Amino acid sequence: MQEKRSMSLSAKRRAGNIASYVVLILISIIWIIPFVFLVLQSFRCESQGLTGYVMPQQWGINNYAYLFGWDMVNNCASNCNFLQWYLNTFIIAVCVAVGQTIMQIMMAYALSRFRFRLRKPLMNLMLILGMFPGFLTMIVLYQVLHTLGLTGDNAVPGLIIVSIASSGMGYYVVKGFLDTMPKSLDEAAMVDGATRFQVFYKVILPLCKPIIIYTVLTAFMGPWGDFIFARTIALGSQTGMNVATGLYSWLSAANISTHFTYFCAGGVIVAIPVIVLFLFLQKYYVEGVTGGAVKG
Q: What percentage of the chain exceeds 90 in pLDDT?
């Protein structure tokens, strides 16, 4: 009787596992279909417009060459601003990743290690303000940046300033990670004569590698895929656009019949840095997420 019950439970568990795998495989296929379509279309050479079929009839790297400045069809330089858009996006993403990481780590360290008056009200205030979507302030931010001359051709520094300005309010995950570190580390270092800054720089930071990588990745991802605010600030300027805004302009009614495959090739190139970063830093990313998911 015991063996039959054990076999029944084993069969149910096996059936449950099979069902789970089937569902996960179906979800993965549905998720990967758009990317496969994008890759296939990026190698299509017989036409540059949107077509009703998926598999290219003629294969080649003409679309990628066009993005990097060479028109292989007409054998001449291409009039393409993709590299400018890509460089703008890269500059914004790197500056924001560095700035946000520094701001969030310093804010989280102060709130995790120090006890001062209005600490709890300040944390609650930042938590409440963080619940409001960012696009509510878009009009105000646009007016401020426009007054300062940081729109249009100068949209890149404007986007960097806006992205870094309030980044300290996103301290929650970093603070949760720091809360898991015993304060005895700080006390032992201070007993040995270290200052508060030396404790932070020489003791705490080396132990924060997973959460630093997590913060850098999440901060890098924001500007890399930003579209709504970046389009508002760029004002249609080719030199001020980021890559998302620039690629979207190729999907307009006037351009989609001649630039669709260029758009697909650009989408593939844009996805490569993010994929590479996650593949190499996945371990630290997971450690940062799990280590920061602690109630502080």
A: 19
**How many residues make up the chain in this entry?**
296
| Same-domain pairing of 234 and 176 | yes
Number of domains in the chain: 2
pTM passes above 0.85:
no
Mean pLDDT taken over the chain: 84
Q: Look at residue 152 and tell me if it is in a domain.
A: yes
Owning domain of residue 24 = 2-77
Q: Smallest Cα–Cα separation from 129: which of 159, 101, 168?
A: 168
Give the β-pairing of 76-77 and 70-71: antiparallel
Question: Are 122 and 202 contained in the same domain?
Answer: yes
CA distance 289 to 287: 6
| Separation CA 116–CA 119 (nearest Å) | 6
Task: Tell me the C-alpha distance between 26 and 47, whole Å.
Answer: 32
The pLDDT tens digits of the residues spanning 62-90 come to: 889 989 887 776 776 777 889 999 999 99
Tell me the C-alpha distance between 250 and 245, whole Å. 9
- Return the sign of the alpha-carbon dihedral for residues 75, 76, 80, 86: positive
Last residue of a domain, one of 50, 77, 104: 77
Task: Please write the tens of the pLDDT for every residue from 209-241.
Answer: 888 888 888 888 888 888 888 888 988 888 889
Q: Is residue 266 part of a domain?
A: no
DSSP-derived letter for residue 200 is: I
3-class secondary-structure state, position 70? strand
For the chain, percent helix, then strand, then coil, each to nearest 5? Answer: 75, 0, 25
* 151 shares its domain with 42: no
Read off the amino acid at residue 64: Y
What is the distance of C-alpha 223 from the center of its chain? 7
The strand pairing partners of 76, in sequence order, are 71
CATH number of residue 203's parent domain: 1.10.3720.10
One domain, residues 21 and 97: no
